[in-house]
Fold this protein.
Amino acid sequence: MNNILEMTGIDKSFFGVKVLDGVDFSVRSGEVHALLGENGAGKSTLMNILAGVYTRDNGEVLFDGKPLINTTVKMSEHAGIAFVHQELNLFNDLKVYENIFLRKELTKYGVLDKREMKKRAKELFEHLGVDIDPNASVSTLDTGKKQLLEICKALFFKAKLLILDEPTTALSNEEIEHLFSIVNQLKEEGTSFIFISHKMNEIFTIADRYTVLRNGRMVGVGNISDTDPESVTKLMVGSSYSAADVYETRVLGEEVLRLENLSGEGFHDVSMTVHKGEVIGLTGLKGAGVSETMQAIFGATPIKSGAVYLNGKKVRVGRIHRAMKNGIGMVAANRKENSIIPAMSLLENNYIADHTITLAKPLIERKKEIKRFYDNKELLNIKANNHADLITSLSGGNQQKVILARWLNTNADILLLDNPTQGIDVGAKAEIYKLILQLAEQGKTILVNTLEIPEVQKVADKCIVFYHGTIKAVLDRKDISEEMVMLHATNAIQNTEVVRYEKQD
């Protein structure tokens, strides 16, 4: 097979720090090539060079047999390269078809030909089997459909090579299967893909070949059929990696959180009791109501009925600030829209939550905050150069670690973690799991929402499965399995009374 892309000897440094060191990378025509590595390994930098966002310091790039020199984003797109970023680049205030044709609008007699643009967008969606209304406002789409729209947008103008950066983070299992069917269909038509993901099961399902980067260098390349997840993981982390469970049984404390028949937008009649030092895994199919329940507990969305009890006392949450004052912290699922503040430095992003609830002391002790940032940097292994850098200078996974550190600063008693490991590599995930269990050992109460059942198995004392906005099942740790969770999440086990549980001795 011929190579559609050849990158050789690619070097790149930022502020004297070398992030790519003589990297060679190639993609064949009509293949899915997995680009792997830990957060900060250089994957995004390499792809941004290819897409024309960054200029390489040294090296050569050949695409479709032609050299790319002093490449700009426009030149890259014109050559047939499309980059679907992990952080979506859509305009919520525009309609679907307007996002697709942005900067490439069709005109007729000097005015926008809206009818033709809607028609072509509809034809594309029908061809790919995507259920999106071209005339809908993007703001009305859920995150999964936004991700599919971003991919469709890239495909519309006949891209020869698609870079998919963590494309399944916000997708349900059904949507992932649909995406993979689209990828396979286009691969048969000759389109090539660079697939960036930390989910090994997806890599070994969709990819043909792989390349591994570590600390800015290429350390491995080969056929997916000739390797296994453990071998690839060892290449990524640079040492023997153990996925062994670090969970240990703990004696739980008194009740700290109780929900009684809580109802709101996207969930109803949710009741649960959680104890000090307990880790609860919350899961269900996408849209089952877990995120919505978390947002209501945190005061981000209104509670229509029911009650919230903290330490046995009924409380009114209602607002985020009130929830924070009551010792509740939350790592939101959508990092770009709900967590990071792009115009602020790493230091400011790190301390902002704590200072929001300590307004009585408005002065910020800079030396103290700098020390706290570097303590968190070491604790969470955040790959960052300087506390004064913008948070957008980090990879998505390292941004996520900064957000987690932000909430650790508040010393919240209850942590709501909504998909906390999104975009985080396998080594960093293991660090997060260990941290969750350490916090639980210290008496923190943690609710973790994830669609990945192995994550629940690694950290949870109990697993609560949601279905259509309410609790379908509560599983003891010994009963947590992917099969059992899916049976409840899909309502394959019907007419089952939800078993409530009390504190364990």
Remarks:
- The first strand starts at residue 3 and ends at 14.
